[in-house]
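Morning run. Coffee first, then this:
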Amino acid sequence: MAELTGRVYDIQPFSVHDGPGIRTTVFLKGCPLRCPWCHSPESQLFEPQLSWIAMRCVGTDQCKDKCIKACPKNAIEYGETRKDMNEDGTVKSIVQQIHVKRDLCDNCGKCAELCYPKALYICGEDYTVDALVKKAMKDKAYFDSSGGGVTISGGEALSQMPFTLEVLKKLKEKGVHTALDTTFFTPWENVEAVMPYVDVFLLDLKHMDNEKHLGMVKVPNTVILENAVKAAKAGARFEIRVPIIPMFNDNDENMHATAKFCKEQLGDEAVEFVQLLPYHSLGVTKHLRISDTPVAAAVPPSAEKMEHMKEITESYGLKVVIY
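And here it is:
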């Protein structure tokens, strides 16, 4: 029988914003939501993807043409020429970059195997449960000294059941504090299964209006809110995460509705605090690593806007932080 595996796109040690203390955050691939502002667009598809970081592409004689010749699909060609400058404004080097023809690329990774500066790399690596837990446990001393632990994130980690469940079980067996960063867009049975092995849920709430939620992120919010209420009644603890997205949910009406839901439907015992996350454009740049099609950027909310959203949420007696 084949060993259970899951697909990971990143592992970040020494994380300090994904739950209490110093943590290792494991990011799993695959998400049913399609948030246009997603700061990790490489997390959305479950399949491995070829990623290309332009600034790592050095175009030296040692590597020039190697990736082009390695591609069995002829999916790599010469791209733009980039000038790297010295501090005094003189030209340091001229780099002949490449271009990935996405309509031909099948993400086989042969080019990435030869790319020594890692400008080309495959995003998505399979781990067994034991291998992932072993890697995370390397930092247990930091977890113990700081009150930290391991956070399983995504994508949507509950899209990779039962892998996520087994990882959480193994971590709890080893006495590790666990957090699960989730949208809760999943059958209740999945939430119910992981609850005994999760110390705190980092729950994303995008919008309280179902039609607006469906229109923007392509899934309804009904199952998300229902799962949250059920989990709260069953004793779950939450750190609520609300991304503040211009022209979507950055209005008083939605902020009041969100705070009211947290206070009245989830309750003070369940909600440890609410995190307000101002929109940033990192995802715009990262999207171009996996696609030729750019996504539109928005203007980040001002400090005054964020403080206003914070004041509304605090008016319901909730603890609020801005990250």
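Residues 184 and 224 are 5 Å apart (CA to CA). Good start to the day.
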